[in-house]
Specification:
The complex is a heterodimer of chains A (385) and B (395). Chain A is α+β, with helices and mostly antiparallel strands and 385 residues long. Chain A has helices at 4-12, 15-43, 45-48, 70-75, 107-113, 121-129, 138-144, 192-198, 219-229, 242-251, 255-284, 287-295, 300-332, 347-374, 377-383; strands spanning 53-58, 66-67, 80-86, 102-105, 117-118, 133-137, 151-154, 168-178, 188-191, 205-206, 208-213, 237-241. In chain A, the strands form 3 sheets. In chain A, strands 4, 5, 6, 7, 8 and 9 form a 6-stranded mixed sheet that branches. In chain A, strands 3-11-1-12 form a 4-stranded antiparallel sheet, sandwiched between helices. In chain A, strands 2-10 form a two-stranded antiparallel sheet. Chain B starts with a helix and ends with a helix. Classes of the chains: A alpha+beta (385), B alpha+beta (395).
């Protein structure tokens, strides 16, 4: 510990360079953290998906609807524990730019099926009592500053407006939080009975079903049974685990996401390369001083350690600050609401970022430190002359 | 010695000493090349997407949707409405009648060739008028679909990106089987991402009886649009909205373009900062390493101006070299790269080619130059302010 002032002196030797190196590393790790958050957002739902849930949708595409009567038939299949349907409402709040997903559901079945959306008992009761009631996720409630009791008008080009009304109107009776970090809380759910009565088109049709199965291991078997049940009907189905469904959805974004991620990763390493080079250079410049240290009795190992500690110091300081600031920025809000679910930093990214920072310090310091250790005193002292 | 000669001789001397510091110089240039390459790459995605979405939006084509609809998917029009639209003033005609096409737009799931996972591929039912209305549809293989038969022709982009869309193959959609009979291009436009068939065949297959989602209309001229629009929107029997195809496409592409550009610019700004710190570091080291040299120059009578200039020239030159390298690499890697992504506004896939436009390249190199100027300026000022006497004594 008594050598800490020595490390400090090394860092202070060229304050400007230390500061600039710190800043480049800081920026690089901030990028790294954003990359992690972005990746998480793009592949979102996959890790959130329930293992015991299947999605049943129209075989041709998600936009085709299924009859509501399928609910009873799905329920009767052996191994199915619960069923809940959702329908894409496509409601527009004031302007299409204010996009957020909104779906009619059966409240009781819905709350039972999706424990990740946390509503208080009072809110659930209120929803069951209010025909035009809706519950909305925290992210969207925050985005539009909605509170319980607010009446929210939505237009629906897909389903038409209720007779005699220019817009649908929903009363916010609950605001739900995610049970886990990263749960998407941008959606609004309202009651299917109200929707069914008031919609102008395709009455009796719903979008897709979520099915809970008693035994996750039999998912594949039940999926086949379900699809066979509806084969050769006008509404054939495709059943897949929720995770696979979410992944398929995420992959629709396709190569774009992977290209952006790859390219940013390349830059991250470029910046590290530049920063690492500077750090190495600052050690090489001090050959003479290191020679003096050895001349007054520092062991080879001690010199190696000093150099390594110095480079790790700056790498870790920059790295941790970068990750920290990115974390704060991500917490503060979504830069593109409606286009991406709310960002959050997966702990994995933070941990691997921190490890990378340490690795940067070790790698950038290793070669010059090794050279410093093997330095012959007489040579080092002669170099500066 | 005149001021100008001083300026150039010091700058030239400085540049000739660059090889002495080549490690640092190369690192700085590589850092900037990386940043510029990424900036160009990401913006090329946005540019390519926008081009695919808007290139075929000619101003003399109009599209009619149900009022309130924000895309074809949420629109619906009955047959009698489509007739009224065809009879409106301003519609171009030929021997067969008005140049219009009442269309249906649905989505089918096909596997992506690259990943094998399902993708939402647009399937469009068109009338024979569609070819004249679009005006840019060219068959590159096979033939057009025949009226009244379960045949499809496939856009070149879709044929490349999605499985099973080769001539002679069949695609099964629900209860129906369709033969793939042709592949077409549309000047790189949106239609190349689509599968086309006869609207009259698609209607029963999708239980759409006599309804359509949109009507595409060729106008007698771009100027006839207002007349056409006024005639339709004032008709009390119709509940529709009329847009120029160019505006419609523009609107449909905003979300994705904005998304990519926002992310791209945000990332590039951060990376630009990273590169700037790198450049500053390099130039400060360069100045520090040459303290004695610079002091000697000053002692010989060279002014502060030429010294500032010489450092700036070095920094800007390195940045430009880096910028050009990065832009060239991005051009080679990304230009024309074919990709597909989902457009959430139409909930369907758009295939497109990345576009490294000249404007992008110029901007990128300007960006690099700016990094070079800022990165060189402060070290240059420090160089000029060096006290001569102590500078000469530096080791």
């Amino acid at each position: 510990m008594k050598f800490l002032p020595l490390v400090w002196a090394g860092l202070k030797r060229k304050k400007l360079r230390t500061a600039l190196t710190f800043l480049s590393i800081f920026i690089a790790f901030m990028l790294f953290a954003f990359l992690g958050a972005l990746k998480q957002a793009l592949s979102g739902g996959v890790s959130m998906a329930g293992l015991d849930r299947l999605i049943v949708r129209h075989k041709v595409s998600l936009i085709q609807t299924l009859p509501e009567s399928y609910k009873a038939r799905i329920q009767s299949v052996a191994g199915v524990a619960a069923v809940c349907h959702q329908t894409w409402f496509g409601g527009i709040y004031q302007d299409p730019k204010n996009f957020f997903p909104n779906m009619p559901v059966e409240p009781a079945e819905f709350c039972n099926m999706f424990p990740e959306f946390v509503l208080s008992d009072a809110e659930q009761q209120a929803w069951l009592k209010t025909r035009t009631g809706a519950v909305v996720g925290r992210a969207t409630a925050k985005r539009f500053k909605w509170k319980i009791g607010d009446r929210i008008p939505l237009r629906s080009p897909i389903w038409g407006e209720p007779i005699g009304q220019r817009q649908w109107e929903f009363e916010i009776v609950g605001i739900f939080d995610g049970a886990k970090k990263g749960t998407d809380t941008s959606q609004l759910f309202f009651r299917y009975d109200y929707f069914e009565e008031a919609r102008q088109r395709e009455k009796g049709q719903v979008g897709w079903y979520t099915v809970r199965i008693a035994d996750p291991d039999s998912a594949a078997k039940i999926a086949v049974t379900l699809d066979r049940e509806f084969a050769n009907s006008p509404y054939e189905t495709k059943t897949e685990p929720e995770g696979a469904f979410a992944q398929g959805f995420a992959q629709q974004i396709g190569d774009i996401a992977s290209i952006v991620l790859a390219v940013v990763a390349a830059v991250f390493f470029t910046i590290l390369l530049v920063a690492g080079n500077t750090m190495g250079q600052s050690v090489r410049e001090r050959t003479e001083e290191l020679g003096v240290l050895k001349a007054i009795g520092f062991s080879n190992f001690m010199v190696l350690l000093l150099v390594l500690i110095e480079s790790c110091c700056i790498a870790m300081l920059g790295g941790f600050c970068g990750l920290g600031v990115a974390w704060l920025i991500v917490l503060s809000g979504n830069p593109v609401p409606g286009l991406l679910p709310d960002l959050y930093l997966p702990p994995g990214t933070l941990i691997s970022g921190a490890l990378l920072a340490v690795a940067l310090g070790l790698v950038a310091g290793a070669l010059p430190a090794w050279q410093a250790m093997r330095l012959r005193i007489s040579e080092a002292l002669r170099r500066g002359a | 010695m005149s001021a100008l000669t001083q300026l150039f001789s010091v700058a030239w001397y400085n540049l000739r000493s660059l090889p002495e510091r080549k490690a640092a110089a190369i690192t700085a240039a590589v850092g900037i090349a990386g940043v510029v390459g990424v900036l160009v790459g990401v913006l090329a995605i946005a540019a390519g997407f926008r081009r695919a979405m808007t290139v075929s939006g000619s101003p003399d084509v109009a599209v009619v949707l149900r009022s309130g609809a924000d895309s074809e998917m949420t629109s619906g029009l009955q047959r009698d409405a489509t007739r009224t639209i065809g009879d409106a003033p301003g519609v171009a005609r030929n021997a067969a009648g008005p140049l219009t096409s009442a269309e249906l737009f649905v989505i089918i799931n096909l596997p992506k060739r690259s990943t094998g996972t399902d993708a939402n591929v647009p399937l469009r039912g068109v009338e024979q008028g569609a070819f004249d209305v679009r005006g840019n549809i060219k068959m590159v293989a096979g033939r057009r679909f025949a009226t009244g038969r379960n045949e499809v022709m496939v856009g070149a982009g879709a044929a490349r990106a999605f499985g099973g869309l080769d001539i002679g193959k069949q695609i099964k959609v629900g209860q129906n089987v369709w033969d793939v009979v042709g592949i077409f291009t549309a000047d790189g436009g949106l239609a190349e991402s689509e599968i086309w068939t006869d609207t009259a065949v698609l209607q029963p297959a999708y239980h759409r009886n006599n309804s359509f989602q949109s009507v595409y209309v060729r106008l007698t001229s771009a100027a006839a649009f207002e007349q056409f629009k006024d005639a339709l929107t004032t008709d009390p029997k119709l509940n529709i909205k009329v847009m120029r195809l160019s505006d419609f496409y523009e609107e449909q592409s905003t979300a994705v373009t904005k998304f990519i550009t926002t992310i791209g610019v945000f990332i590039a700004a951060l990376m630009g900062l990273g590169a700037l710190f790198g450049a500053l570091n390099t130039m400060y080291s360069a100045v520090a390493g040459r303290t004695r040299e610079i002091a000697t120059l000053r002692a010989l009578g060279f002014g502060a101006g030429p010294v500032v200039f010489s450092v700036l020239v070095e920094s800007v030159l390195l940045s430009i070299v880096g910028g050009v390298l990065g832009a060239a690499a991005a051009f080679l890697l990304f230009d024309g790269y074919r990709a597909s992504t989902i457009n959430w506004q139409t909930f369907s896939q758009v295939t497109f080619a990345f576009q490294v436009t000249p404007g992008l390249l110029v901007n990128a190199i300007a960006f690099a130059t700016a990094i070079g100027i800022v990165g060189g300026l402060f070290p240059a000022l420090r160089a000029a302010r060096l006290p001569i006497a102590s500078g000469l004594r530096e080791s």
